[in-house]
Amino acid sequence: MSQTPYGFDAARFRAARAAAGATVPHIARTAQVTERAVSLYLAGTRTPRPAVLVLLAHAVEAEPAALCTVDRETLRHLRIFTGRSRAQVGRELGMSEATYRELENTGARGRLASSRYSPREGRWLAWEEWAAPKFATTPDRLAAAEERTRADYQTERKRRRQRQCEADPAFAARIEGLGRPGRAQRES
């Protein structure tokens, strides 16, 4: 089973299976899993690993994203929809798995995910241009997923800080104290 929730939707998988007229044995052969595993995916009691998701989608003639319900598509979703691990995507982007994990979790690109020169095209390519094919998507979709990743990270960071302030009054006082000098400068 996948350790990362990414929105696999058994109802969508069942609908795609019905539309394609695919049998459980056909899906199992194509996805290289057991018929029991396919039955568990169809029932919604098991979530396929990203690599298996891609094969299941192929078996029912659908895109991996079509088998998932995702409110806000992030970099994690784009990677999962290609069926690759963080290490694989990191290698393709020319960065370590740890650096890619940071990008996928925070949306912070750093210098390894900046523009690159393309000798074939004779020009510099923006991150969205050269990285989008690695995610099997468009530059606009990649940029939107990156922005959502960044926004989700900031929101979660604020939630964690709020919970910590509620649990530890001394921490809350330190945070409040750090904010005063900045406010004083802005007000003067």
From TrEMBL:
InterPro entries: Cro/C1-type_HTH (IPR001387), Lambda_DNA-bd_dom_sf (IPR010982). Residues 143-156 have a biased composition (Basic and acidic residues). Residues 12-67, 74-142 form the HTH cro/C1-type domain. Residues 141-188 are annotated as: Disordered. This is HTH cro/C1-type domain-containing protein. It comes from Streptomyces racemochromogenes.
